[in-house]
């Protein structure tokens, strides 16, 4: 028997009515914010959310304010019917799919910004990106009122920015990070992988391979600057074009590691172009 | 019999525990954020809050981030015991008085900014002021989780900034504005009136008198620019020093009024110094 169609809320009022009904029945709720074009990585976050709450809401909203003027907002993949079917199969209870005008009505004029953790890496490469993310995530969390929200470690800097703003603004929600889903050859699952040509897709696993090799070299005591330079060289040898960054940073605040930081938990993060497609990945060190 | 001492919460956890207990008992809660040094204007907001909810929390927090480097943060009046007694007499149920480190712990790095309504008037005269206000009010509202929050019309631009950010960030609270409390001679009640010398206090009612006269002239059809200039002249004649602004603006967005705006609800707002003390006031037109 096919799954029943997934209920869809298109307004804040409808979303809140459903969550309030669950809470009135004594149930907890988790939210999984996404931009749609869902893949197994997203579905693993939905399944993780189910472990933390009785009910799961997934949002699908391609947020215009987190795309730069020359980025891929217009061509970002959209497939609501396919997304809804995948969410239902993963045990999601509600799809929240607001319109742009529901999220940003006439006169909208508020921005949430996070200094520090949002400034290096993608914050430097994509000006305004994390202000767009911080603002829309604040709104989604406050619209939903979920007890828990799940975000993927694939967007590791985003996860740390969200942890910071939730703590700083006292948003009453618990943030849970979910591990990066990967293809069998190691490539991190991403909606943007759909942009890759066959040749680019074949070259793409060089990114996680470079990060894994770098993490091993660091654990063996190699110098950070050497390891970063080697990783960049290996990406370029594999056919990557512009490398926005390959950097080792503190795992929580994403600050540069000082000379005495050998025992600080660290993360290696990278962003690089393969053809016109910008791929990101990261790993613990 | 004297009133029982007012319970005081000093941490977010204690505040939330009390509000959660009320909600579990089916009671609603209202919040009245203040910077302390309470006067009858504040107490009228507490009484108004009681009309909107079963329980009332007043917060007292002198927020450092909304004071400029040359403003009066250090000498701003503080009198918690006196404030607590006044709040209890007005029917407040809980005083929330967090420390600066409870509000802004190590690593704090998030700011809420509002464009448009926060930019003219006090936004121009006090750079950074409304970002400080928007951030701390977002935090207080999310810490408390009240159903309703009451702010005075005395700080009229602040009230409009707060209405805007609550709507934009989808903070689940209803904002209620309370009318400005006034002394018998018309001076708006303000904690900063305590700074005035006797002579300054005697001159201060010229501010509401100038605004009332201006509103009457506008209703009689006088030109906005003429009325603003006359009000400034009358303040200077009464002994005021620097006049930061006397301006007629749209009542909601505080935009300049266009030539066809005779039917737009408007507000006249002023800020001017009497000696070292900066007074503000406003009235509907």
Automatic annotation (TrEMBL), chains A, B:
Residues reported to bind beta-alanine: 66
Residues the entry annotates as binding ATP: 35-42, 152-155, 181, 189-192
Location in or out of the cell: Cytoplasm
Gene3D superfamilies, sorted: HUPs, Pantoate-beta-alanine ligase, C-terminal domain
Gene Ontology terms: biological process: pantothenate biosynthetic process
Pathway listed: Cofactor biosynthesis; (R)-pantothenate biosynthesis; (R)-pantothenate from (R)-pantoate and beta-alanine: step 1/1
Top-rank lineage group of the source organism: Bacteria
Quaternary structure and interacting proteins, as annotated: Homodimer.
Function: Catalyzes the condensation of pantoate with beta-alanine in an ATP-dependent reaction via a pantoyl-adenylate intermediate.
Protein name as it appears in the record: Pantothenate synthetase
């Amino acid at each position: 028997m096919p799954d029943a169609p997934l209920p869809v809320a298109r307004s804040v009022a409808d979303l809140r009515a459903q969550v309030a009904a669950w809470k009135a029945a004594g149930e907890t709720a988790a939210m999984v914010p996404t931009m749609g074009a869902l893949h197994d990585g997203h579905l693993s976050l939905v399944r993780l959310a189910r472990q933390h709450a009785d009910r799961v809401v997934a949002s699908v909203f391609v947020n215009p304010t987190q795309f730069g003027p020359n980025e891929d907002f217009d061509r970002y993949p959209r497939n609501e019917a396919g997304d809804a079917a995948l969410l239902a199969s993963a045990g999601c209870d509600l799809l929240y799919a607001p319109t742009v005008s529901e999220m940003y009505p006439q006169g909208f004029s508020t921005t949430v910004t996070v200094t520090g953790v949002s400034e290096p890496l993608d914050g430097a490469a994509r000006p305004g990106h994390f202000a767009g993310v911080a603002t829309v995530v604040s709104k989604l969390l406050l619209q939903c009122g979920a007890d828990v929200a799940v975000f993927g470690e694939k967007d590791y800097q985003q996860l740390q920015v969200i942890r910071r703003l939730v703590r700083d603004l006292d948003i009453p929600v618990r943030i849970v990070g979910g591990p990066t889903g990967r293809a069998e050859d190691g490539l991190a699952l991403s909606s943007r992988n759909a942009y890759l040509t066959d040749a680019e897709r074949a070259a793409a696993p060089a990114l996680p391979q470079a990060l894994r090799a770098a993490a091993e070299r660091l654990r063996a005591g190699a110098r950070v600057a050497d390891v970063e330079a080697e990783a960049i060289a290996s990406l370029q040898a594999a056919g990557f074009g512009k490398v926005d960054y390959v950097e080792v940073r503190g795992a929580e605040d994403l600050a540069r590691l000082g000379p005495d930081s050998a025992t600080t938990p660290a993360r290696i993060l990278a962003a690089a172009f393969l053809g016109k497609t910008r791929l990101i990945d990261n790993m613990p060190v």
